[in-house]
Design a protein that fits this description.
By secondary structure, the chain is an alpha/beta fold. About 40% of the residues lie in helices and about 20% in strands. The protein binds S-adenosylmethionine. S-adenosylmethionine binds next to α1.
Length: about 230
C-alpha cells in the first residue's frame, strides 16, 4: 500500500514546488498547515517534557516540522528530494534517502517527526515499520483519507477540482498544476481506520487524531522496543 510506481511522478512535483511551498500549503489547508504541525509536536512534549533530543525529520523538506522542536536537539533531515533539502536551514545534518530503506541503525533517534510526508510514501507499511525501527517515538502529521465514505468522496473532489485552482492564486501555472498530484496521492491512500491498523503492527499507538474532517491525521506512537 502506498504510491508504488506513481511515486516518481509525485517526487518530480516536490522538486518543482520548493519556491512556493509554504504559501501553497497555507491555501490548501485553509490556513491550518502550521497549526497542525505544532499540534503534532505538542503531543510529544505533553508526554516527555523538554528532553534533550536526537531527532530525525523524515521528509524534512525545508525543515518546517523540526523548526518547532525546542530545547537541546540535534536534527538530521532525511528527504528523497535534494532540492528540498537544499533550502533546509534547520537541520544539523542532511541525508538524501527514502523512508522505506533508512540508512540508520535501530534506535538511532529519540524522536522521528514527519510533516506532510508519510502520505507520499512508496510503500506505506514499510515506511511505518522503518519509522518505528529507527526512533523511539514517532510524531506524524499527514494527509489522510477519511474513513467516512461521504467525506472521502468530498476530499477526492476537493483535491481533483478545487485544490489545484486554489493554489494557482499563490503560484505560477506550471507549478500549481503540480498540485493535481495530491489527488493521485489521496487516491492511493488507505482509509484512516486501516492506517491505524498498519501503524499498530509496528508501533504502540499513543494518540491518533483526525483534523479537517479526516483529511489530515496526527499521531504519536512509540517503538515497541523503547521504554
Ligand atoms: C510536502 S513535503 C513536507 C516537508 C516538511 N516536512 C513540512 O512539514 O512541510 C514532503 C517531503 O517528503 C519527501 N518524501 C516523499 N516521499 C518520500 C520518501 N518515500 N522518502 C523520503 N522522502 C520522501 C518529499 O521529497 C518532500 O520533500
Amino acid at each position: 500500500m502506498g504510491l508504488g510506481a506513481e511515486w516518481h511522478v509525485v517526487r518530480e512535483a516536490y522538486r518543482k514546488i520548493t519556491r512556493v511551498y509554504e504559501r501553497a500549503n497555507m491555501l490548501a489547508t485553509l490556513g491550518n498547515v502550521d497549526r497542525w504541525r505544532r499540534e503534532a509536536i505538542a503531543l510529544f512534549y505533553s508526554l516527555n517534557g523538554k528532553a534533550a533530543l536526537k531527532v530525525l525529520d523524515a521528509g524534512a523538506g525545508p525543515g518546517n516540522m523540526a523548526r518547532h522542536i525546542k530545547g537541546v536537539r540535534y536534527v538530521v533531515a532525511l528527504d528523497a528530494t535534494p532540492e528540498m533539502l537544499y533550502v533546509n536551514d534547520v537541520a544539523d545534518d542532511k541525508v538524501v534517502g527514502v523512508f522505506e530503506y533508512m540508512p540508520f541503525r535501530d534506535g538511532s533517534f529519540d524522536l522521528l517527526v514527519a510533516g506532510y510526508s508519510l502520505h507520499a510514501a512508496m510503500d506505506l507499511e514499510r515506511a511505518v515499520a522503518e519509522f518505528s525501527r529507527v526512533a523511539a517515538f514517532q510524531c506524524v502529521v499527514s494527509i489522510g483519507k477519511p474513513t467516512n465514505r461521504l467525506m472521502r468522496r468530498l476530499l477526492l473532489m476537493y483535491t481533483k477540482y478545487v485544490l489545484p485552482r486554489l493554489v494557482c492564486l499563490a503560484a505560477p501555472k506550471e507549478i500549481c498544476s503540480e498540485y493535481k498530484k495530491i489527488y493521485i496521492i489521496v487516491s492511493a491512500l488507505p482509509p484512516n481506520s486501516k492506517l491505524k491498523e498498519i501503524i499498530s503492527r509496528y508501533a504502540v499507538l499513543i494518540t491518533f487524531r483526525e483534523r479537517g474532517f479526516g483529511s489530515i491525521y496526527i499521531y504519536l506512537s512509540r517503538s515497541p522496543n523503547s521504554f
